[in-house]
Amino acid sequence: MTQAAGPENPRHIDARITAISPADVATSLGIPTPNTITDLRSRLRLRAPVWDLADWARGSRDTEAAAEALRAADALVADGIDVTGAELGRSQRYGFHYLRWLDPLARAYALTGDERYPQTFSALIRRWEEVRDSLVGQWQGLDVIWYSLGCWCRSVVLLPALAAFGDSLDDDGWLTTLTTVIGGTRWMAEEHTAFRHGNWQLVAATQLLHTGLVLPDLAEAPAWRERGAQLIDEHLALDFYPDGGHYERSPGYHLMCLRNLQLAALADQQYGTGELAGHPRLHQAHRWIAELVTEAGWAPAFQDSPVEWPGDVLLRGAWLLQDPALLQTAREVMPAPLVEAELAGLPPAAATWAETCRPATAPGPSTETSAVALPYSGYTILHTGAGLRTVVNHGPHIEHELESHSHRAVLDLVLDHAGTPLLWEAGGPPHYDDPRYQTWFQAAAGHNAVSREGHQLSQERRASGTHLHGAGFAVFHGSQHGYGLQQRRTVITSDHLGPVVMVRDRAPSTVPGQDEFTLRWHAPTPWTGSGPEWSTAELAVHAIGHEAATVQHLGDARVPGGYGHAEYAPLSSLVLTNTTGSFDTVLRRTASGGPAPQVEVTGELLVLRQAAAEVTVAEQWVACRSADGATHRALLGWAVQHLEWAELVLHATSPVDLTWEAEGTTFMAVVTCPQRCTLVLGGSGPDLELNGIELEPARDHPGEVVLPYAGTWTVTGRHG
Q1: Residue limits of the Heparin-sulfate lyase N-terminal domain (predicted)?
Q2: DSSP label at 446?
């Protein structure tokens, strides 16, 4: 009979994995077959696993986490559970056999020493062992028990349980628990013989190393340790981008991988070489999630991710890596009582170290408009000094063993103010059996982007994005071809008129009237308005370029609330359509203070005016000046060759990025060129300096400056 093809290697499940006897364990230990399981237990060395539940119990007493564990454990004692998971959907059934539902029993025992908990644990895991070989999964070619995630997670649960229960777990329960771990580790070692991308193999590798370190006397343990360490090293080289992001680009799966790398690194520190914690890519992986987290403590829900609260991971990572800056970030994004509670549940050395790293004064929030790129992962974060934050997704589609976690959206964005979401997206589903997983959570309709109706977004999107900041602006400019034509999005943030975000969407090659394009803006609170003016309780929008506008409820999403909480709630969707693919959107907080700017469109120029100042947005530059034009003027340009604004007239022989600021007649231009370039600054006086060096005036071409090679240059002078 031919075995159906699946996402992992052809079936390699036999009695060495599913039917391990006491004699088999004794053979692996190199000892004679014992007369009793009790004798075998006395010969097996189990080192304290990571993370040791004794530490957790010491730090968690009288907390809600402890109460929750006790409630779950008591429910299992009283009511048991259907160990088959038969009532669950296709994907949930696989997750059920991770055996996470057994974990509260071990935690409850660590808290109380109540013998009911190991007794119930033994009864349930032995009942599960009796039926597991008869269970069949619904993913073609993927065993519901013996596959990478199942073998990995059972070890994560069962090794700490073995240590926590100690001698209180009866012999039969002990043997079933131990042999389940050994069988799964054997399966993972045989499965993962060559590198493959993704979280499945990476987390399996961390448990190969961990199990080999905490069960060191098994004959296979050295090979497990070696293979686990090699795979971890390969994944840090090939499965994490140079900016620190995990291959799948999902904050949730990034944290899953990071938590398990932390486990492996601590096990390596305690029992191995200690080298893993010093790996540069592991440090970068912590900084990556630190860049995405808001001051309220959450990271956005891109690519099937839930709303994540990574403060605990940052805190553990800070101690593990001995990184005071990371500790400070954790303290900034996590409530102080939770920081202390988390430290209390770690080995005592963690709290001691953290106490020595307390900063003398906490740094204040940044007052600068800025941009931060995670370029390899495909995210750019724009900040205003007033706390308005935009995160843009411009990365590729990434494959997966079963279903890709990459959503069918690109150049989409989310917007928050000081951690309060203003524009939001569908994010990850409650579970992968949810009937709206493909039609809402992953679909284009669940995202803040422009879609081309009647076309599916291709997996080959040719997405790109660049960023720059200066002159009081931060800009992202990106393009993608996923709908069969080029579409561009430019996002500009500024504090010049109060905190404002300007979004320009363009489809330059479309023929008006032949296509329909839809731009959706999803908000956690209801939209009201008409024409160009729309608002929610937190956000005001001036929309230009649409031919029709409606407000709809398209679906629900997890919306961040208090720290650690994100419940599903309806999103209100402002749906704008046209046949050109070109939309302009101006976004500002309703509570930002001051009057809303007047918005005018003249050709391709978008002009925002207030009494004291105006901002002009063009296709390749944005500028601000006082209403009378007499005081400060500032301009930021990207890939510009020719422009005229105010007294600035610029011509360049190749595209340049430009920051230009002027007070009175004095100006400074910071120019980045990709190669040698000649600039002509029309209207400038003869006294020009390049990087502080006075230049001889150009005889034939006044205002001409040669930038002799690629780089960033500062030109100063006077106009007139």
Answers
A1: 93-305
A2: G
Question: What is the C-alpha separation between 315 and 209, in angstroms, rounded?
Answer: 23
Q: Is the backbone peptide bond immediately before 51 cis, with ω within 30 degrees of 0? A: yes
Domain spanning 370-597, CATH class: mainly beta
For 595, the 3-state DSSP assignment is coil
Report DSSP state, residue 141: T
Predicted TM-score of the model (pTM): 0.95
Is the pLDDT confidence value at 198 over 90? yes
Both tokens assigned to 95: 């997750």
CATH code of the region 196-359: 1.50.10.100
Residue 319: count of CB within 10 angstroms of its CB: 24
Q: At what angle do helices 348-356 and 336-344 cross, to 10 degrees?
A: 140
pLDDT tens-digit series, residues 139-169? 998 999 999 999 999 999 999 999 999 999 9
Helix or strand holding residue 669 (H, E): strand 666-673
CA 205, CA 506: separation in Å to the nearest integer?
Answer: 45
Which of the four pLDDT bands, split at 50, 70 and 90, describes residue 117?
very high
- Torsion angles phi and psi, residue 609, rounded to 5: -125, 135
Q: How far apart are CA 246 and CA 464, in angstroms?
A: 18
| pLDDT class of 699 with cuts at 50, 70, 90 | low
Domain(s) labelled CATH 2.60.420 in the chain stretch across 633-718
pLDDT at residue 362, rounded to an integer:
53
Distance CA 85, CA 144 (A): 11
pLDDT at 600 over 80: yes
- Which CB contacts under 8 angstroms, 24+ apart, belong to 559-567? 559/307, 559/421, 559/424, 559/524, 560/296, 560/298, 560/307, 560/419, 560/421, 563/296, 563/297, 563/309, 563/311, 563/334, 563/335, 563/338, 564/297, 564/309, 564/338, 566/298, 566/306, 566/307
Q: Are 164 and 106 in contact (CB under 8 A)?
A: yes
Question: What pLDDT score was predicted for residue 629?
Answer: 67
Q: What residue spans in the chain does CATH classification 1.50.10.100 cover? A: 196-359
**To which residue do tokens 């070989």 refer?**
133
Copy the structure tokens of residue 553.
């409820």
User: What's the pLDDT score for residue 366?
Assistant: 66
pLDDT number for residue 386: 87
Contact predicate 616/455, CB 8 Å:
no
Residue 33 has a pLDDT of: 87
Helices (H), 334-376: 336-344, 348-356
Query: Would you state the pLDDT for residue 465?
Result: 96
| One CATH from 2.60.40, 2.60.420, 2.20.28, 2.160.20 for 633-718 | 2.60.420
Q: CA nearest 548: which of 506, 516, 588?
A: 516
**pLDDT number for residue 112:** 98
Token pair recorded at residue 680: 């002509």
* pLDDT the model gives residue 1: 33
Give me the chain's average pLDDT, please: 94
pLDDT exceeds 90 at position 119: yes
How far is Cα 287 from Cα 155, in angstroms, rounded to an integer? 28
CB contact at 8 A, 529 and 586:
no
Identify which of 320, 223, 323, 220 has the alpha carbon closest to the alpha carbon of residue 276: 320
Rounded to whole angstroms, what are the CA distances from 702 to 635, 680, 687? 22, 8, 10
CA–CA distance, 202 with 715 (Å, rounded to integer): 50
Nearest to 396 by CA among 313, 482, 312, 475: 482
Give backbone dihedrals phi and psi of 463, rounded to 5 degrees, phi first. Answer: -80, 145
What digits encode the pLDDT tens for the residues 298-325? 999 999 999 999 999 999 999 999 999 9
Q: Residue 573 is encoded by which pair of tokens?
A: 């969707």
- By the 8 A CB rule, do 646 and 652 touch? no
